[in-house]
Amino acid sequence: MRREPIDPSGLEWSRVSPKYLRVRLIGWLIGSLVWLVLAAVPLVLRLTGVWDSFPPDWMAWGLPALVLVIAVWRGLLLPRQVAAIGYAERDDDLLVRQGVFFQRTLVVPYGRMQYVDVAVGPLERAYGICTLKLHTASPATNALIPGLPAEEGARLREQLSARGEARLAGL
Amino acid sequence: MNNPSDALPAPAGPEEPDAGGQGGDAWHRVHFISPLVRGWIVLVAILYFVGRDWFEGMFSGETRGRGPLPEGVGVLLAAGVLLAVVLVVAAVFLVSWYFTRYQVTAEHVRVHSGVVFRQQRQARLDRVQAIDIVQPFLARIFGLAELKFEVADAGESAVRLAFLKLDDARRLRATILARAAGVSEDPEHPGTIVEAPEREVVAIPPGRVVGAVALSGTTVALVLAAAVIITLGITLDTPIIATSFIPILIGVAGAYWSALNTGYNFRAATSPDGIRMRYGLLDTRSQTVPPGRVQALSIVQPPLWRPKGWYRVTVNVAGYGLSASTEGQARATLLPVGTWDEVLQTLALVLPEPGTPRPVEVFTAGLVGRDDDEGFATTPRRARWLAPFAWRRNGFAVTGTALLLRSGVLWRRLVVVPHERTQSLSLHQGPLARRFGVSDLQLQTTPGPVSARVALADSGTAWDLFHGQAARAAEARRRSGPEQWMKPVPVSAPPAAGPAAGPDDAPGDHPEDARGGAAPGVGGAGTIEPQAVPEAVPEVMPDVPRYVPAPSGSGVDADGRR
Hints:
Helix content of chain B: 25-40%
Low-confidence stretches of chain B: 1-23, 489-539, 553-562
CATH architecture of the domain at 304-480 in chain B: Roll
Shape of chain B: globular
Number of domains of chain A: 2
Radius of gyration of chain A: 21 Å
CATH topology of the domain at 304-480 in chain B: PH-domain like
Strand order of the largest sheet of chain B: 7-6-5-11-10-9-8
Order of helices and strands of chain A: EHHEEEEHEEH
Low-confidence stretches of chain A: 1-5
CATH superfamily of the largest domain in chain A: Pleckstrin-homology domain (PH domain)/Phosphotyrosine-binding domain (PTB)
Number of helices of chain B: 13
Largest sheet of chain A: 4 strands, antiparallel
Oligomer: heterodimer
Structural class of chain B: alpha+beta
Largest sheet of chain B: 7 strands, antiparallel
Strand order of the largest sheet of chain A: 1-2-3-4
Strand content of chain A: 15-25%
Distance between the termini of chain B: 54 Å
Largest interface: A-B, 28 and 37 residues
CATH class of the largest domain in chain A: Mainly Beta
């Protein structure tokens, strides 16, 4: 499968930090465990005999199995999803791409930028990365770049602000 | 009550940061009656409940020998309690009225409100996205109007002044618009700003509004419901099921009424201050959208309207936001039901420069055309099974000034986004679309009813558009008019033909004497003001923009009028 069919040729994508994959994997692990525990509740109740007949055996076993399969699938996909996130600064606009199966590429002209957010969660802080979000006058503009190294995030924020200032274009 | 500066309950100190024209900077309160008009619903509710109890009590009292009041409660006491409640309600509204003051300076409009929790709000005039004057029915009786000042936060109105005398509201709107437009006031005659003249371009006859309502989806739903209920009643032999028709009828009547109330007497006019719209049966509303404030526009034709050749035009304006209410939808409607000529006329107001030598043909192709008429790029043939009916309609075209997105076979739809208004652009592609080499294209605009999206465009073509759109937007932005639309600019419409004066404080510039010369159409309360006479102010009233069919057509004279 081609890596980036909807992307243009001759464009240098900046990739996000590999540490972001670790953050995502930790999040994935925790989330999967929580779901697995929840899905295993009927099975445990059945095995301990608290519920005697209601969920049939196939359902009691099938539910956690299904959750496990989905979790493994998502886990296998994660590295490729993280690798698919990219951004490119051009002279007049910023491009952001994401997605493996359902791909999206977004272009935001600098002059359209209303403000820039840089957010850091506890896990992200431990790994020294941050999430940058660009806001335009449209709430539908979902320009999110996760997993930037902290200094790269700060540089990008300043850079975007400066370029937005230079190309200020109102609404 | 106009200048209560000595009786003010200690405002936030003598803060007058920008001493603009001192004449209009006084603090004002809204009209004295407004607490009554705003509180009338509360009062009516109280009177209704009390009155109903009393009324019911009268009848039961005769039969049971019991008075309208609980035992041991005198009539005087009951009346006293009622009076006290009414007085408290009135007092609350009165106090709120007393503490709400507004001021319009050369650059800002400020509103101070609140008693316990004070609020001081200040909005820049040049950030205005739209100004509405609303007259709910009760306010119309008193000759009052509410003024709404919208900025681009897509939420509630930045400034709502309820209620002012209609003339005051109009004058205030004219002042705000003139200052926002960058028209400088005549120093010798301050306060002489009157409304800019206007020229009516579209007036919808009431018959067509009724027809449009009758041909709406509501009617289809009504007919379907009737068919289902009658069928059920006959097959199950239970005529009682017909009573379930009553709530449906009530809902349908409500839908009909709101469509009629908001579409009735619709008029659109052009003026130097932008597009003016007026409509309403009982509640009337007058909207002004300054030039360049329309972010996106869509023309839709529901299938039932096709035989009549009617269309609806809705817009995204940053200040209006996305609202599901009838009122919100009506505000975002530029033309509730219009013929193709009227649609083109409306389009010409929004987009005076279509950016193509064949505007009529291009827009017609956008609405009724298919395949690649007039340069539309459609879904490639290889992907036709992804959209077996719509693939010949899905498409987009780029003119010099706008992006046109076409879709829909039954619900025909054309979305027009001026290049300088595109916020961002995204391409989406799923696994199936990738196999066929197509992608979806979405333009993000400010919140509103118009969603600019074209499905299943050829990936290469879509990418070309994607790649060039930022450059086109930047170029369009450079060419577009200034935020303060009456400021003299080198290349512009006739009103700015005066000497290119300094940007901020040029006294006695050209456009304002033309404004001063126009007679304001001051009608009685609630009437539609008479149309300004265009001949009286030829220099400020630009020609109504109008699209001209391509030269191949006959019957076009030298200046482009048919």
